[in-house]
Amino acid sequence: MNGRAAGLGRLGEAVIDAVERFGDCARLVGNTLRALGRPRPPLRETLRQMHSLGVRSTLVVAVTASFTGMVFSLQTAFALTRFGAKPYVGGVLALALLRELGPALAAVMFAGRVAAGITAELGSMQVTEQVDAIRAMGADPVQKLVLPRVAAATLMLPLLTVFADVLGIGGGLVVASSQYGISPHFFMQTVTYNATVNDLVSGIAKTFFFGAIIGWVGCYMGLTTSGGTVGVGSATTQAVVTSSISVLIADFFLTKVLLAL
User: Fold this and answer.
1) How many other CB atoms are found less than 10 A from the CB of residue 120?
2) How far apart are CA 132 and CA 115, in angstroms?
3) Which of 28, 33, 93, 250 is the most exposed place for a label (fewest CB within 10 A)?
């Protein structure tokens, strides 16, 4: 009986801790949105973060998207051969990439690099009391540290997703042409015939939310870091896991909303 009561107690503590963390994160989101309306926005720092977070993530997104398109094309063409529909692999690939695979994979890879980087940077500042020093000088850490990173992640992920879509379709074209003898011209015809602008817009629209989620999770984990260098490492791991899971959960609900429109 005592063991059962202890287990329920630990469960209750975990639930309370999760609710408190969610409330703190929601407060950070609100403070960031308020900081967005203040005069003299940190444009220079935002541009620097766009380069640091977005441009430097290009390689990992490019490699992921290219090989995802190749693998998807390989598997789809193999499956469609059974039904005599092998030539139409381009249309299937385009719909999957534009609506789901491109945005989701780009966001997960972006989260792995960006959330970890933001958490490590802000976490190091937090444990060395640099964030407290910013407050002591009368500056707002949210406007100075959080807003530029969230804005950069929100703006750069859609661009990376477009890049991923193009490379994914290009990788699929190469495999379909070299492995299955599908004409590149016919491949692109099926892509343009089956995929519409709405499919592209539907996928890109979700990435603005994904980017904001990744930025906020990274900043929250960094600003709540404690325990020295060990705490920074633990917070970095939590940031990657939390942001990746949050993106996938948000993907489901955003997809439901977009399909209902």
Assistant:
1) 19
2) 22
3) 33
pTM > 0.85: yes or no: yes
Question: Is 72 exposed, middle or buried, given 0-12, 13-18 or 19+ CB atoms closer than 10 A?
Answer: buried
Neighbours of 21 (CB within 10 A): 14
Instruction: Identify the residue whose tokens are 């399909």.
Output: 259
Q: Please count the structural domains in the chain.
A: 1
Q: Which domain does 82 fall in, by range?
A: 2-260
Mean pLDDT value across residues 206-220: 95
Q: Give the pLDDT confidence of 52-104 residue by residue, as tens digits.
A: 999 999 999 999 999 999 999 999 888 888 877 788 898 899 999 999 999 99
**DSSP per-residue string spanning 241-259:** HHHHHHHHHHHHHHHHHHH
Any residues with CB less than 8 A from the CB of 32 and at least 6 apart, and which?
142, 146, 147, 150, 216
